[in-house]
C-alpha cells in the first residue's frame, strides 16, 4: 500500500509540465517494459488482476456503477488502518496530488496507470529505469512509495510485510515476455494467466566429469544412467567423481546481481 503523501519526503524529483507529461506517459504505457514494471508493482500490492483497479485496502471492492472515484474510506485489516485504494493502492492525498498534476478527471484504470507513472517519476526512478538501470536499484527507489516493495536492505521501507526482490524480478521477467508477445493491440491492463509459483526454483544442475585428458558435462540423469552401467563404469573408473566434487557441482548455483 502507499505510505507517503506527495511532498512528504525530500527524496523526489520534479516532473515536466502537465501539457507534455501526460502525453508522454500515455506513450510510455505502450512499452512492454513499462507495462511490466507497473504489473510488478500491482503484483506486490496484491492487485494483479483487472479487479485490482477497484480494490480497497483489505481486499474489498468499491462501487463503480456511478463512475470511477477514489472511495476515500478508511478500512481496518490485519492490524492496519488505511484508505488506500486502486491497483496501486493510492492514499487519498497521493491520488489527489497526481490527479491535479496530470489533469485527470476520474479514478478509472487508465488514469490510475498514468498516476502510477507520475509517482515513479517523482521518486526519480522513471528515467533510470528507461535507461536500463538495475532492477533492484529501481525497486529501492520506489520502496518509499509502495510499502510492499523491498529496499536494498531486503525489507519494507516502513517495516511492513514486503515481497522478496527475487520474486519480483522473476515476475517482472515473466510479464515482459507475456506483454511483448501480445503486441501493441494488447489491452492496457495485463494480468498473469496463472499465479506465480512462490516456492524456490530448482536450479539447472550439470555435473562436470573429468578424466584422463577429457572432460564432459552431464545432467544428473545422464550421470546416473552412465554410472549404473556396471560394465562401462568398471572399464572407465576415472569417470566417477569424488564425493567432494559431486557435492560441489550439485550446490554451485550462479546468483543474480539485482543492483550492479
Q: What is the gist of this entry?
A:
This protein has 260 residues and is mainly alpha-helical. 40% of the residues lie in helices and 6% in strands.
Distance between the termini: 27 Å
**Average of pLDDT:** 79
Q: Biggest sheet, open or closed, and with what strands and sense?
A: 2 strands, antiparallel
Care to count the β-strands?
4
Q: How many helical stretches?
A: 10
- Rg for CA atoms: 24 Å
What class would the helix/strand composition place it in?
A: mainly alpha
Q: What does this protein look like?
A:
Helices cover 40% and strands 6% of the residues. It has two domains: 18-182, Orthogonal Bundle (Lysozyme); 207-251, no CATH class. The strands form two sheets. The chain has a two-stranded antiparallel ribbon. Helix 2 packs across helix 7 and helix 3 crosses helix 4. The protein has 260 residues and is mainly alpha-helical. The chain has helices at residues 18-28, 32-45, 92-102, 109-122, 126-130, 135-142, 165-182, 220-228, 230-235, 243-251, and strands at residues 75-77, 80-82, 207-211, 214-218.
Task: Give the arrangement of secondary structure elements.
Blueprint: H1 18-28, H2 32-45, E1 75-77, E2 80-82, H3 92-102, H4 109-122, H5 126-130, H6 135-142, H7 165-182, E3 207-211, E4 214-218, H8 220-228, H9 230-235, H10 243-251
Summarize this structure as a short list of keywords or feature phrases.
260 residues; mainly alpha; 2 domains; two-stranded antiparallel sheet; two-stranded antiparallel ribbon; 4 strands
Amino acid at each position: 500500500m502507499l505510505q507517503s503523501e506527495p511532498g512528504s519526503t525530500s527524496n523526489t524529483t520534479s516532473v515536466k509540465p502537465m501539457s507534455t507529461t501526460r502525453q508522454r506517459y500515455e506513450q510510455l504505457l505502450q512499452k512492454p517494459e513499462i507495462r511490466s514494471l507497473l504489473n510488478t508493482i500491482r503484483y506486490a500490492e496484491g492487485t494483479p488482476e483487472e479487479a485490482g483497479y477497484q480494490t480497497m485496502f483489505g481486499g474489498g471492492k468499491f462501487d463503480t456503477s456511478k463512475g470511477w472515484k477514489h472511495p476515500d474510506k478508511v478500512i481496518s485489516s490485519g492490524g492496519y488502518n488505511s484508505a488506500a485504494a486502486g491497483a496501486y493502492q493510492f492514499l487519498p492525498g497521493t491520488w489527489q496530488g497526481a490527479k491535479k498534476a496530470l489533469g485527470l478527471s476520474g479514478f478509472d484504470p487508465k488514469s490510475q496507470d498514468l498516476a502510477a507513472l507520475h509517482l515513479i517519476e517523482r521518486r526519480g526512478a522513471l528515467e533510470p529505469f528507461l535507461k536500463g538501470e538495475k532492477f533492484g536499484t529501481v525497486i529501492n527507489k520506489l520502496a518509499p512509495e509502495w510499502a510492499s516493495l523491498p529496499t536494498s536492505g531486503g525489507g519494507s521501507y516502513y517495516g511492513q510485510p514486503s515481497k522478496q526482490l527475487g520474486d519480483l524480478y522473476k515476475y517482472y521477467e515473466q510479464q515482459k515476455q507475456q506483454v511483448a508477445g501480445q503486441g501493441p493491440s494488447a489491452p492496457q491492463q495485463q494480468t498473469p494467466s496463472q499465479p506465480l509459483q512462490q516456492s524456490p526454483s530448482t536450479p539447472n544442475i550439470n555435473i562436470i566429469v573429468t578424466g584422463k585428458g577429457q572432460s564432459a558435462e552431464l545432467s544428473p540423469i545422464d550421470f546416473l544412467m552412465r554410472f549404473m552401467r556396471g560394465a562401462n563404469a568398471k572399464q572407465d573408473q576415472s569417470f566417477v567423481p569424488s564425493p567432494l566434487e559431486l557435492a560441489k557441482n550439485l550446490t554451485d548455483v550462479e546468483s543474480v546481481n539485482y543492483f550492479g
